[in-house]
Amino acid sequence: MANRTHLNEDGSPGSDRLCDEVIVRLAQAGDAEALLDLIDRYREFVLLKTRSYFLVGADREDVIQEGMIGLFKAVRDYRNDRDTSFRAFAEICITRQIIEGRSCQEIAVDLDRHVKSIDNALQRIKRKVEQHLRDREYLAREAVRKASELPA
Fold first, then answer.
1. Local confidence pLDDT in tens for the 152 residues of the chain
2. Going by CATH, does the domain composed of 3-113 fall within 1.10.1740.10?
3. What are the angstrom distances between the C-alpha of 150 and each of 139, 143, 144?
């Protein structure tokens, strides 16, 4: 897709590499081959960006997936009428998506930790209530026993 084969002046095969902005426009218009070309072009870039991030409770593939989602968003949202290259815009989108994914993952881990903490606290309260009820039952039986020993 990105390489348009043509013949050089000497008759040998050559190619013109299309610029990212042109390929993005094609991808935005629904050209699947253009989208695949962008993915190929930016795969290493995404891998490079993801090396500096780590998601708690996630593996490296999760971080790479977040980066690729950022790339898709960049293709979807890029506007050629702005004074920025697609590469610069894609870098922002990829980084933002990785950070959002990281934030969501960290929130999920924190939430899980808090739920476990609340569950443990509820289990302790349950044990105390059960013990209190057993103590009250024992005291009630003792009171009945002592009452039955009293002279009538």
1. 444 433 334 444 444 457 999 999 999 999 999 999 999 999 999 999 888 776 555 677 888 999 999 999 999 999 988 888 999 999 999 999 988 886 666 666 666 777 788 878 888 889 999 999 898 998 888 888 888 888 86
2. yes
3. 17, 11, 10
Structure tokens given for 43: 């795969």
Tokens 């903490």: give the residue: 117
CA 142/CA 135 separation, integer angstroms: 10
The residue extents of the domains of the chain are 3-113
Contact, 47 vs 64, CB < 8 A? yes
Cα dihedral 96, 102, 103, 108 sign: positive
Q: Write down the pTM of the prediction.
A: 0.58
Please give the helix or strand (H or E) that residue 13 lies within, else none: strand 13-17
The secondary structure of residue 82, as a DSSP letter, is: S
- Return d(Cα 44, Cα 14) in angstroms, integer: 25
Please state, in angstroms and rounded to a whole number, the distance separating the CA atoms of residues 94 and 132.
Answer: 57
Answer for the pair 37, 3: CB distance below 8 angstroms, yes or no. Answer: no
Tokens of 83: 């004074």
